[in-house]
Design brief:
Oligomer: heterodimer
CATH superfamily of the largest domain in chain A: Tetratricopeptide repeat domain
CATH class of the largest domain in chain A: Mainly Alpha
Distance between the termini of chain B: 33 Å
Radius of gyration of chain B: 19 Å
Shape of chain B: flat
Order of helices and strands of chain A: HHHHHHHHHHH
Distance between the termini of chain A: 25 Å
Shape of chain A: globular
Strand content of chain A: under 5%
Structural class of chain B: mainly alpha
Order of helices and strands of chain B: HHH
Radius of gyration of chain A: 19 Å
Chain lengths: 178, 89
Amino acid sequence: MANENKSEATISDEEVSGGNQPMESSKALSPRGDRAIVRHGYSTTELDALYSLSRIFIESGEIATAERVARGLVSIEPTHVNAWLVIAYASLMREDYGETISAAHRALELRNSSMEALLFLVLAHFQLKDFQTGGTYLGEVSDRLAASERMRPELRQLYEAQVLRFEERLTGGSSKTS
Amino acid sequence: MKSRIEELMFHDETRLPLLALVPQGKNAGELPKLRAALLARMERVEQEVEGASNSRVTMGESERQRRDERDMLKIAIDWIALQEDDHGK
């Protein structure tokens, strides 16, 4: 399973920008850190606004355009988890499940608490008829829910539907969604 | 035409909210204010892409990233222009 990369995933915006606090001398020499170089100087406001634009395109059904914006985002900010989720979504929509899996893994590497990424992995593997691997990720979601991790109602609905698909597969039932 | 997965996820009896897998954005409303900054970035990226194109035969990873960045910026700048047109009407 993916390992959490806390050193990148949990860097706050303040840390990236240098924040307003006095810096130690070592930090003062390189106030914005290496990550700022990767971001090509884009501010957090710009990154957030560009991500929002990508989300708007998804909502309006312009999924290819949403993906182009998301790919631009990860080119300047490779640790942008939500942009990877947009790529996972777009590739799922065009039935490129290998790409969905790849993008979801990137998201999960960066934020191992991402239920969204796990569900993308479930969906993509199920679409590929790989119910064994998909079931493994589904089990991971289940474990996290059992450990009282929070999940938005919409995601829970999606999760429960995938459980149904998996159970129907196990019992040999004819599922409409498999 | 809708893809098979869209059919499955939105049009079966469960009507699954697949869109929920992509978190909401925060501040698209800020984009118009960022127009000048994005235009300046676009100019820089254009120069970088052009410079790379002239110096190499094959596209490297860095050049591909610059092209992706340029593509994103163009979409954003066009979108801002559309919003401004709409508000101007």
